[in-house]
Every structure is written in structure tokens, then in C-alpha cells.
User: Fold this.
Amino acid sequence: MTRPADPVEAPVAPAGGRTRRFVLGALPHLSYLVLALYVTARLWVHRDVRLSSVNPTDHEQFLWFLGHAARVVSHLEDPFVSYRLNVPDGANMMANTSVLGLGVPLAPVSLIFGVQTTFVVALTLTLALTASAWYWLFSRHLVASRLAAYVGAGFLGFAPGMVAQAAGHPNLTAQFLVPVLAWRVVKLREGRSLRDGLILGLLITYQVFLNEEVLFMVAMGCALFVGAYALQRRQEVRAQVKPFLAGLAVAAGVAGVLLAYPLWVQFFGPAHYRGLPQGLDKFTTDLASFTGFARRSLAGNAADADKLTLSANEENAFFGWPLVLFVLCALGLLWRRPMVRSLLVVGLFFAGLSLGKTVVFNGHSTGIPGPIRLLEHVPPFDLATATRYTLMVVPVVGILLTLGMDALARWAGAERWKWAVASLAVLAALVPIAPTPLVVRDRPIPAFVTSGAWKAYVDDEHTLVSVPVPRMDRMTGMRWSGVTNLGFKVPRGYFIGPSSATDPTATWIPELRPTSTMLAEVAASGRVPVVTDGDRAAAVADLRYWQGAVVVLAATEYNAQPLLRTVTDLLGPPTWDAAGGVWLWDVRGLH
Assistant:
């Protein structure tokens, strides 16, 4: 994958040439940062109250995870298990998308400016850095045309799938190590097994703390690519097999040592679980979505996208038919190259897996079994969400796009009319899928939380119980805890954990308690139930179980009045905190 020598590179004067080269070299990266700021612009404004409109609950979840990382730094707490969520049972942070690889380096931002700022900074930087990393790889090791490298890398940083994930998943937009990992795997063939293996092992370790799902897919993609390439070039790679395997062994050893304890905690430690929660198998790729347009692209809209996906966050395969046509043409023109054929193997493999157990086309089941049926019970395939396999189709499309543009540049040469034709072809492929800014909504946090008034009620041994109690569709209290950098503990929450102390089956919903179930039903329906003495006794028992110090209902909460009446029936009259904008029930006397 060595880049061909650039045939025209004018000499520069030693004095000003270095500065000029630096400025010109920085321009692509600065432009990626500007584009990332454009995509996330609405989140930068009023970020203390603003959430992603597409997936606010995931946004709120990551606020808590970033707060956890900040507390790990500020209080030197256990990074892998937290007992400040789901009190008293805790949550296994290694087994959740705790994104320590972003949260820990950005902890100073969280501690000074708050996790709301950290979330937006993380999204912006991960999008820009992913594009920059691909540009570095393409411009130095793949193509001669800097323009092709720039456009191809820009696509990979801001592909429809990346922008869709940016609505709530900074762990999945953090793909800046993907090109570096692929490059270091290829370099293992050069014979410096110890050095290259050590570097790869360290990169693998860091990627684990960004996102293990992406690491798994990169590993599978590299294995498929290397295997397909080796089959086509047996004589060429024969001498490289031994150093390649030796370097791989070193990388596995380094990563194995560094990750032994964290992975033990993940799979065998407190609050570990098995499998994935029910319902995730429904998130598959509609075959028609490969030529469709995502809602956050110029040619897309929500109505059409909704017909092809269950979640706006998972529009990973929406490449648009013009780009698909361009890539097919590139495949035909470059078919003789072993690398291109190897990329096709990788792309088809992941595209096939993403289709799920039964192939769906344009919203209708075809009845055709999907390839994933052969692997669905094979670890770790049983731990991946099917539609996310298309996140590895994106690099394949991006590389083929870059190679196709490089071939067009060589064909055009110095002839203007050819450049015009080539430019029109690229613009036709990419303009329809150009990203648009993320859609947001405002959800204020009461002054009771932001002013620190909660400190008068909650100590480090007890919890703040929000109404409704936190869960995956009602994130109020968990978000409040996150924005205080986990200043107070909360019961329950939105995370993956075991179904019970004796059942490790994965679930989003902690073991049910009568009071949390009742309040969730009121929050959803707006209907006030008939409260019995048994319900009141259960509420006292639940508050003791959760170690609650104060129960808090914000005046801005959805269905606040029915919730107020219900909690009043359970616990008695509240105290209205006008300055804080909340009703309070001081329950410290229960302990």
C-alpha cells in the first residue's frame, strides 16, 4: 500500500518553504475541523440544556459516562465498575460503552466546563480526527493525488453513517484509530516484529477503551483483507508470513497483558452479563438502504429514511445510488488490482452480516436467510448489533472512492475537459450525501441541580431519587448526576447489566421494583393510580433499598402533575423549592 511517487513536486526555498509546507499541510485538517463544527454547530449553542433530537437518551447516557471518567481522574475511583449508578448493585463500566478512551483524556474539560461541553468537544474532534487519520494514510501510502486523498478521507470522516452515529454515539464516531490499526497490521510484514508488534499492541489496548465493537470489526476486516490478498499473491507474501505472524504474536501478547484485568472485570467481574438485551436483533440493514439517502444528508429526509431503518442513529448503509454507481465503476476499472478484489471481499462480508437473520428489502421481508445465521451463536458475533457491521463497509467504499478518484486524476492529466468530466462525476456521487447539521432539542436542567442545592440533602452514602426513577426512556436523574460529574449517586439507570443476581442474561432494565414501575407507568400514560397502603409500604422499602436521601420532581418533567399527585399519595406532601424549580420529599428519616 505504498503511495506512488508524486511526479510533480516543485522545489521550495529552504527559508519560507518550511512554513509554506506546514500551512498547506495543515489546511486539510483545519477544513475537516470546520466541517465537524458545522455538523455539530447546534449542539455548541446552549449546550448546557441542549440534547440531540434524534436520540436524546443516548446523549444523556454518555453525559453520565463522561462524568464517570471525570470522577475516575478527580477521585481516583475504579474505572471499570461504578457504584454511583444503579445503587446498590452498581454497573459494570467495562461491559458498557463507557468510552474511557475519550472521557479520561478530556476529563479536564469535564471538570472545568462540564460534561455537556465535553460531549460536544468529543463529537467534533472524533469526526475531524477520523477524517484526518484517513487523509494521512491515503496521502502517504495509497494514492498520488492529494485531492483524491482529501476528498476520500473527508467522506470517511463525514459519511452518512458517521453523521448518524454523531446524534448520540461518540464512541462510534471515534474511528481515528481505524486507519492507523489497518496500516500497522500491514507493516507487520516488514520484519520488525518486536517493534511493530509492540506498537500494534498498544493501539489495540487504546481502541478497547474507545469501542470494542469497532476493534472487533477492524480485526475481522484486516483478517479477511490479508487472507484474500495472500491467496492472490502467494509468491509475494510467502517470505512475509513468518515476520507477520511473529509481530501479530507480540501485539497479542502486549494487548493481552495490558487488558487481562479489564477484560476479566468485563466478562467475570461484578454486574457482568451474557449476550445482548432482547430486541437488538431487530436492528438490521434493509438491502434497499445501500442506495438510499440518510436523513442528515442533502438529498435525504426523515420520511424516506424511516421506511428503511428502525433507528435514525443506525443509518450506516445509506450511501446513495450515485456513490454506489461510482464505486461499481471504480471496481470495474481497477479490478486487476489484488487490493481492490480483497476490498470487495471485505465489503461483501460485512454487508452480508448486516442484513440480519432474514433479508429485508424496502421494508418487506424476503424470507431469504441472512449470512449471520451461521455465526449468530459464535462469540463475539453474538455481541454485535447487526446493522453496525456496515460501519466496516464505509471504509471499503471510501478506499474504492479514493482509488477511483486517483485513477480519474491520472486519466485527466493536464487536459481541462477531462478534469471537468472527472469533477462532475465525483460531485454527482458526493453532493447528495453531503452532511447537514444535527437536529437538537432543549431540555433544561433545574436550578436545584445546577446551583448545587442538592448538596444540602445528599451525602456520599445516599442517593438522589428522581421522579421518574432513571431508566432507558426516562433519563432525568442520570443526566443530573452526569452534569455534576457524579456528585451524587442514583438508583437504577440506562446501561446493560444482568437480569438479576442469579440470572446473567443481558438486559437494559435493572431488576424491577414496585415504585419505579408505578412511576414509569404514570410518566408514560399520565394516569394517576389508586395508591394503597401496600404501595406506600413498598415505596418506603424501595427508598431504603436505593439508599435514598431526597426524592425530586422537576416542574418541567413530562406529566409532572400526575407524577406529583402519585408521589404525594405515596410519601405525603412535598416541599416546593421555587428557586430550584422542583418539588422535594426529604426521606433521610427513613434510614
Observations:
- The two ends are 66 Å apart (CA to CA).
- The chain is about 50% helix and 5% strand.
